[in-house]
Amino acid sequence: MTRKHGPALLLSLAVCTGAQASDGEFCRRIAAFADAAPAAKAHEITILTDWSEEPTIGCRRDESAAAIAICAWLPPHLSIEFMQGNVSRVLECFSKRSRLAATEIFGGLAGKIRVSDPRYVTRKIWIELEFSTVGKDGALSFLTIRSGYRD
Description:
Elements: H1 23-35, E1 43-50, E2 56-60, H2 65-73, H3 83-94, H4 102-105, E3 110-116, E4 125-132, E5 141-149
Antiparallel strand pairs: 1-2, 1-5, 3-4, 4-5
Helix pairs in contact: 1-2, 1-3
């Protein structure tokens, strides 16, 4: 079976895990993206990973300055192999709890989580994570980070 990733994968790296930024820096950068949400609509990025013979990670985004900046910075700081760890790490930035047990317990996660009044943001913003850590039938593992302004 041939996979066609097309323009969805903008960055390809042949490494298993990314360079780890400090949790504070990691969270501040994602919060800066969330804070840049336009008042009238939500914006988002999607991280895609493919753990196959040639591991790849990419970032799908719009042309906003905030999306370009986070997509340039984020992929090297994430894991290609363990999407559940990426989900846990991003969620930890915005919740008041410590790191989720997702990396140790679950072999696969899929779902959507919305956090209102997340940590690290300066405006009235909501952040939503949508994710699947197990690609099926040729689909890639993904993590979408979406944010919007709350009235």
